[in-house]
Amino acid sequence: MPDTDTLAAPDFSNWSCPLPLRDHPRVVMGHGGGGALSAELVEHVFAPAFGGPVLAALGDSAAVTLGGVRLAFSTDSYVVRPLFFPGGSIGDLAVNGTVNDLAMSGATAAYLSCGFILEEGVETAQVARVAQALGAAARAAGVEVATGDTKVVEAGRGDGIYLNTAGIGLIPAGVDLRPQRAEPGDVVIVSGPIGLHGVAVMSVREGLEFGVDVQSDCAPLGGLVQAMLAVTPDLHVLRDPTRGGLGASLNEIAAAAGVGVVVRERSIPVPPEVANACAILGLDPLYVANEGKLVAFVPRQHADAVLEAMRAHPYGAGAAVIGECVTDHPGMVVARTALGGTRVVDLPVGEQLPRIC
């Protein structure tokens, strides 16, 4: 172990980006929101500390080769509040979030680990309820929880139950899914209506009524991805737009590949209940989290067949083409509005809806 007394403190003055980390000497909620603050924390703090070419790819999961076998490996932590919400629970999120991260590399999830961080005083019945939900979600996703851990923190030092899951899965031969592969001409497809998870969690947490019961879209996407790969293994990019929503995912892909992305606002499937909730609260549906959707960058010659396969699967029934990759404005995402204008879809700086996953 290195002697921590000899490690130099980070020199903020050498960072290439003037905002916003140097304006935040302490962690704020936005650092966990999946937007610009999160990206800069990774770029300036974690990536230099850890190093390595595998981490540098910054995908939903890491693609590694071990003993001649290609594996996808991913980990995630879940701090959602409340623990149970319409359409799911923290247990469902822990399974589906990790399964979906593996699926975005084309992998079929095989095994999960699960860590429970419990606050002293939480009811054992509540822990059992979360564990049962997690186990049921794992069985539904066709994955086994193979190992785990439990820790307890003092009362007041947690928020009931936090979860961490890690997963591994096999990547089929000939599959190479990563954001750097997006290229001009690719068709951008989203697998269904966006924003449902974020609005569902917010509605119960804040006690808001939107005139309709909004259900989270939390679901395992491995089967949908396999149906898409059965059409062609030459998909370029898959990403599940969780924290930061569709807007953040599109920006991350555009930046990684150095391409421009154009989307048509009218083509993006935003359910009326999500649109109404966002209008009331001043939110942009493009930045609201999802937990059972994916966005795909598909070579144009395969787009129609992939879209048909997606719509034939229960978790892709609402799939829609929303845009394309272009050579113009590399690294930037723009939306064509219903009025015929354009607007920049930037990477969000903070976090619209904290604690949604």
From TrEMBL:
Highest taxon of the lineage: Bacteria
Q: Which residue range or ranges hold the PurM-like N-terminal domain? A: 59-171
Mind telling me which InterPro entries this protein's record contains? HypE (IPR011854), PurM-like_C_dom (IPR010918), PurM-like_C_sf (IPR036676), PurM-like_N (IPR016188), PurM-like_N_sf (IPR036921)
Q: Please report the stretch or stretches of sequence annotated as the PurM-like C-terminal domain.
A: 183-328
Which family is annotated? Belongs to the HypE family.
Protein name per its UniProtKB record: Hydrogenase expression/formation protein HypE
